[in-house]
Amino acid sequence: MAERPSPLEPGPADLRILQILMENAGRVCSRDTLIRKAGLDSSTKRRADVSVVVLRRALGKDSIQTVRQRGWLLTESGLISAKELLGLQVDIQP
Question: Which of 54, 46, 40 is nearest to 85 (CA)?
Answer without folding.
Answer: 54
